[in-house]
Amino acid sequence: IMRQTILYRGTREIEEARIKVCQLLVELDPPRASTYLEEIKERVKQLEIAKGTTLMEQSKVYVDIEAIRRSLRTRLADSYARYKGASHGTGSRPNDIPYFITKVLSQSVDTTAASLPLLLADLHIVDGALGSEADVQFQALFSEVTNEFLRGAHGLNAYLSTRIRHGTLANTLRKPVADERLVTSREEGKASYLRNIFWKDYLLQKMAHRHECEVILDALDVFSSEFDAVVEHIKDKLIQIKVIHEFKDAGENREALFVYRSSNLERLFVQDWDRSASSMDEFVDRCVDILWEKTDRNLVTVQRVLNTEIRERLMLPFATLTNRINSLSVGTQEVGDLLNAVGRARTGTQSKLGLVISWFRRSEVYDRQDYAPEFPFNIALNMTKNIISAAAAWSGASIRSKTPRSLMPGRTLDGMVYVFYGLLENAVLRSGLEAAELSLTAEVALLDGVFSARVSNSVAPSRLTAAEKDKIETLRDSIRRNESSGRAQLDSRSGLHKIWLTINSPIYKEPHLEFFYSDMTFVVVFGFNLEASNAECSDH
Fold first, then answer.
1. CA dist list (Å): 33 to 17, 29, 30, 37, 134
2. How far, CA to CA in Å, does 441 sit from each of 37, 205, 227?
3. Rama region for 132: left / alpha / beta (φ>0; ψ in -120 to 50; rest)
4. 207: pLDDT confidence band, cut at 50, 70 and 90?
5. Of the segments 158-167, 248-257, 371-380, which one has the largest average pLDDT value?
6. 421 within some domain
7. d(C-alpha 38, C-alpha 23), whole Å
8. How far apart are CA 8 and CA 54, in angstroms?
9. How far is CA 515 from CA 332, 457, 475, 483, in A?
10. 123 and 168 belong to one structural domain
11. Domain extent for 390
């Protein structure tokens, strides 16, 4: 009844009102107080999970700056020291034309120091060759920081892959059409799609002629192909990174929307600024600020393209399908329900695209409270049900905390949510079982700064093949050889590389990950040690 009234603006207000009602009933009906208190506890828990889920949706563009700093310190500290030693005392270079240009612009352009490199990155001169050995050294350092920020193990591309490209984007956009049974999956190893049995059975009951039914089923096959083609274009072509230096790029990702231009003028400006830097960390932080500014510009482009060109392209398959159905000599009685399903899916897809667009912004400061060890699992489960159509009514997942009163540091929340989301997604999509048959249990513990988790899900007997077991062994060997960084950014199918990449961050110590089949279940065991400093809840 509360959900049908117009007195409440949303689910959160309804839940809060229900909690107040239960609190009043505790006083009015003492004999049943325990029942009301239990409901209050569960509804408060669901409100916190919903709040956490919303928080995850607002912070998908991320770079682990502390991990980048640590990696660069290890690799570049000696090189930076040698560069500073070689460049010490060289003074200004008044006869160097590129250097003179950067000095003039820095003094005359009406802009902030932070945005001047952005301007210089788009300016190029014919005679912009590197000069001294110090110039060459600095260019190498400048390039290394850029590469680590963009393509490093904890850089932008890794998190675009983990949080957006790997399943999340496709599952989110596909959910409205999957809910209405308008799309099917591709046939194993083929480009063609499985026949839409749901609408075939439904239409055969309504339509007198089988020919019209087959025409509609063909149209649904085309719809699946066209819809997925747009989604794959976003994932594989647009949400990618391209680096261009002085008009030169590697020739890959030509349609990428994350474009990072640089020039010798920009490098000279930063090099001149670095003369006053007292440490390598200052130099890295300066480069990171510039890269974030370029990222912000790219994010504006991504939002614009998704909201215009992609929105139009994503709606075309709906129009094509509707026109094809309407072109048949059949009445509303036969195809009315299908047309209504197409309309609902179209509206839902518009809404989901708006959600996807909202992902492409960054939040420099993460305000995360310390949390119970089971909290990220519950958020991930909520995300799984919201994103994957097949999991919408899934009730077979549960978690138990062996140390319910312990708290995890807030800044680890995002990573843990995506670890559990990856495991839940893997179970739903790879177990070979329908949601009604699928069971998953998780056990977590945090004792003396050591976190441990064991997640196991049931699998279909057909999955327990020799080839599948060989695949698991290959994955295990790959992780042992520290190949996860590169493979995670390739949007690999399993997601286990991404899980290892997450827990192998500098904020965790001594991480471990094991996975194996046991009887009729797939088991993943992982854990790590936490530093005391992890209690801090802020990061870039």
1. 17, 6, 5, 6, 76
2. 26, 41, 34
3. beta
4. confident
5. 371-380
6. yes
7. 11
8. 19
9. 53, 11, 9, 16
10. yes
11. 365-535
